[in-house]
Structures are given as structure tokens and as C-alpha cells.
Amino acid sequence: MDEKLKMVNFLGQYLAASRSEGQIFDMALMISQNVMGFDHAIIRMLEKDLLITRSHIGFPRDAADIVIKLGEGITGEVAKTGQAIVSEDTQKDPRFLKGVDGCRSELCVPLTYNKATIGVINLESEKPGFFTKQDKSVMETLASQMAAAMETKRLRDELMRAEKLSVVGQMASSILHDIRNDIHTLNISADLLKSRELNPRLVKKVSEMVKGSGENIYGLIEDIFEFVKTGESRLYKKGVNLSGLLRSVLEETKSGTPDNVRVNLSSDESIEIEVDRRRFKRALLNLVSNGVEAMPEGGELTISASVKGGRVVIEIGDTGVGIENWHIEKIWEPLFTHGKKRGTGLGMAIVKKIVEDHGWKIGVESHIGKGTTFTITQARGTP
Ligand SMILES: Nc1ncnc2c1ncn2[C@@H]1O[C@H](COP(=O)(O)OP(=O)(O)O)[C@@H](O)[C@H]1O
Ligand SMILES: [Mg+2]
């Protein structure tokens, strides 16, 4: 095989890895410069019936800025007919439009996609007869690789957009569903307060329902903020007493914890950790509420904090339904929810993100029908 063709075939593979159209153009020009050696090169894309410059090497600004009409000059003709042209001596070629001084020969190939011409790539040399027939087919190969890379890029973008939309859509619908449930509870509570005789027990019950719904909505909003901000991992760390933090987590989850769930806390009072209090608490809240939710028939939630081998270890265990082996890895994925009426699937993804942003580690052990324990371990060397 022709050496140049071999090079183009080899280098052309890299085009497909380009992340933007601009990168594809720049890379294609670099490849053709390496393979062909020329003085100036330019890529123009067709927009309506005009050829607009997208990338160039060695062209003076004013020559690169020239907009060429479809059918005009060599470039315009290639775009119009979809056939490559080699002009061996531009001075004798009536089609030649003077762009750069001293250009004596030219090779112009169309960029074709789905049988339609979408642009042209133009190489120029100061030597007459510089480009051969073989060069023409080498450049045609490169042009088809470029078109394929552009199509791959377009499909990849479309896929990403669709994926993002579906994540946002799924998230929105599950969250709105949850909020609707809570609003329903609030409405019922309002009716109860209005229409029934107000005995103190009922008032207490209704007030707990109102508080629980408020906390749910608040927690959802916090989760959404946390999730949307995942790109931003700036932590505002300060010294926090762990026992105090755990107590405030339990205080906050109290109204959502049914009476048949016993809660045990054992924590060494002296443990101080250096964390972003708000976010670390968010993670713990999610773990506690998952634990409670895993025990619809009641059970025991055990939270312990201790120092083992110089590291702080926090364990949150429940005696609930457990997690099946096949989805134990999936629980960390955003939007993965299983076995609940009201799940957003954001909780564990947030937990993992927060814990890892702190440089800590989280692990899980679970047995079906027996329960689940999450273990958070401090990174070595962080106070
Ligand atoms: N303590 C637990 N016991 C059993 N299953 C759990 C526990 N924690 C998490 N899971 C599983 O992981 C899934 C994902 O949790 P999470 O991301 O918090 O979403 P959600 O709670 O909204 O479903 C849950 O739906 C559940 O199936
Ligand atoms: Mg959850």
C-alpha cells in the first residue's frame, strides 16, 4: 500500500477520539500536513450555499476570512459537484480564485456525509504540480474518516443529551411524586384540625404528621441540592464532636421513625472529627433513614462510633430486609431504588460522594432477612 495512505489510515483513527468538531478539523489538518507536506491548508464547511472557514494552517487572516459561494472557483466547484480536483498549475487554471499569494498548485476534496457534500478540505502548494493523483485518493480517504468522526461525535452528543434528559426526567418525576404525598398528608392534617374535636392526643398526632411531612420535603430539597452540586466538592471542614453530631441526626429522624424501631447509640464522647458538618450530617441522615426504611416490620437500628487502629469508625446497622447480592453494587448508583414505594435513589449516591470527598471510605455488609451494616472509616492521617 502507498506509504501516505498507510499513514492516513493509521492517524485517521485518532480523529474518532476527538471531543469537538474543531478538534476534528485541527487534527485532520495536522495529519494532512504530516503526510502530504504543503504550504497552506484550509477546511471550509457549507452553510446554506456559502463555504465558511472553520480551520486553517498557513493562511493569512484576510485570505482565510474570504467566504466562497457554492460553484465559485475550485473550492466552490468541488463543493457543488462533490468531485475532488487537482489543479497542477493554478496560474493556468481559469477556475482558480486568488487567495494566498504564491499558490501554484492545489488539491481540493469534498467532505461528504450521506452522499451530500458538507464541506471541503483544500491544500495548496507554492510549487506547481505538487499534488499527484495518488495524493487525491489519500485525501479522499482522510475526508471520509473526518466525516465519520463528525458523525460519531454528533451521535455521541445526542446520546449524552438523551441520557441527561432521562436522568433529569426520572429524578423530577420521583421527587414530585414524593412531594405530592407529603402535600397530601399536610392537607389531611389541616382537615383533621378543622373538623374534628381537638383532643390533645389527636393534636399531638397531627402535629407529628405535619412535622414529618415538612422534614421529608426539606430532606428531599437538601438531597436535590446535594445531587445537583455533585461537580462542586468544596468542603467547609471544621472540628466536630461526633457524638453530638450523631445525636442531632437521631433527633432529626425521630419523627420519621416508627415506634417499633428501637434505636441504640453508642459513641465515645471524646471523638472529634474534621468534617464539613452540614454535608457529613446529610450522609448520616440518609444512612439512618435507609436503615429505618429497611425495617417495615420493626427492628433495631444500631449506631456506633469508635476508634480502631487510630481511625474513627462509624457503623450504622439495621435488622431489616437486607440487600440482595445482585444489587449490592448498584445501591451507590444515582436513581437506583429497590423495594420501596417512595424512593428517589439519590441517597446512597450522595452518601458515597460525601464520604469520599472527605477522603473517608464506606463499605457495606448485608444478609437477606437479617440486616445491613454500613461502615464509614476515616482516612489515615486526617484528624
Ligand atoms: N439499610 C438498607 N437495607 C436494605 N436496603 C438498602 C439499605 N440502604 C439502601 N438500600 C437499598 O439501596 C437502594 C438505594 O438507596 P438510596 O440511594 O438511598 O435510594 P432510596 O432510599 O431513595 O431508594 C434502596 O432503594 C434499597 O434497595
Ligand atoms: Mg434512601
TrEMBL record:
Keyword list, A-Z: ATP-binding, Kinase, Nucleotide-binding, Phosphoprotein, Transferase, Two-component regulatory system
Keyword GTP-binding belongs to the record: no
One of the record's GO molecular function terms: phosphorelay sensor kinase activity
Range of residues in the leader sequence: none
A matching Pfam family: HATPase_c
InterPro entries documented for this protein: GAF, GAF-like_dom_sf, HATPase_C_sf, HATPase_dom, His_kinase_dom, HisK_dim/P_dom, HisK_dim/P_sf, Sig_transdc_His_kin-like_C
Positions in coiled-coil regions: none
Domain Histidine kinase intervals: 174-382
PROSITE patterns: HIS_KIN
Record keyword Nucleotide-binding present: yes
Protein name: Histidine kinase domain-containing protein
